[in-house]
Amino acid sequence: MKSKFVLLSIGLTVGVTLIGAGTLWFSRPYTFNGSVIEPPIAAADFRLRDQNDRPFRLSDQGGKIVLMFFGYTSCPDACPATLAQFRQVRADLGREADRVRFVLVTVDPERDTAERLREYLAGFDPAFIGLTGSPAEMESVWQSYGVYREKRPLEAASQAGGHGHAGENYTVDHPTRIYAVDTRGNLRLTYSAEARAAEIARDVQHLLRGGN
Amino acid sequence: MKAFLNTIGGRLTFSLLLGLALAWAMSEGAFLILKDKSDHAPQRIELVIPAGTAERVARGQASPSIPSELVFVVGDTLVVKNEDTVSHQLGPVWAPPGASASLTLDQANKFAFACTFQPSRYLDLDVRPRVTTATRLTAIAFAGPPMAVLIFLYGLVLRPFLCSDFSSVVSGGGPPS
Fold first, then answer.
1. With bands split at pLDDT 50, 70 and 90, how would you rate the model's confidence at A116?
2. Which pTM was predicted?
3. Where are the alpha helices (DSSP H) in B35-132?
4. A31 to chain B: which residues are within 8 Å by CB?
5. What ipTM was predicted for this assembly?
């Protein structure tokens, strides 16, 4: 009788402890994987043209998350990697991916025409959006998002260990950051190129569910 | 109590409790001895980039208020407060002008992050592991059960069960004291 009482007490203690620990674990506030802009600021609005030559205005994307990065179609390494990452994020999001826009803003408007963007993005996912514009329009967007860009003649780039395709006469140095704009048009998060797709997808899901 | 300890279940329970208690005491002792001075509860650590930093960096001058190395523990949140007129970057953290950006450091490692507010263009971040409740529970979970088995076996050596004990165990009671 006594031993049953002792065992019952131990069982109850362990049970209560586990329930308490579980409650604490699940009631923790969500921690974003990306770098959080505090407090969120309104994302600088812009109007460019997409790969189908249709106008694209950032402020018209209300209700959707916009994942955006700056790159170019002749990029030998970082941009294909980021688009592959986007493809994985899209797959991880499942049906919720319809509420997310995946956007590539060019840093090479001289070469990245709508047609070229369309062909390039079709190789990753036709749902991805490629944006281009006049050099003056692009300059304003780059400045708003702290994007530096520097053209490097291919010969110099090769000497410095860079890569390039035959027939191209320059590469463009550019940041590899990914920006996340929430459903209200606020710039909320940024990610480095090393961010994992699953982590980005978790953050996006949290934002889509109205999380702060 | 004596009768309870003379049953197999009683001894097992006692051994498990004693094993867990000893494992807890030993691991706490070890944590105390090996404790890192930088160990602390997770906190927000703010790094302020003063106005004019970009201009100073362009001239090759360091900002006196920004250290060249920062030490954190896992769980800390690094907040970069940008008071400059241009955006600044520290590794994955990008802070627009006049705004702050934060990052929760969830992995212990030594990082050399590219940064825009040091003339060297790099800033070292040392993120150290932290002793958490989970660490403590893991230590107890790993050390407790083997210790309980040893205590149980040691108990058998010190006071073996007699045949009469087993017959009483089988019949549901303890041996006569």
1. very high
2. 0.74
3. 53-58
4. 104, 106
5. 0.74
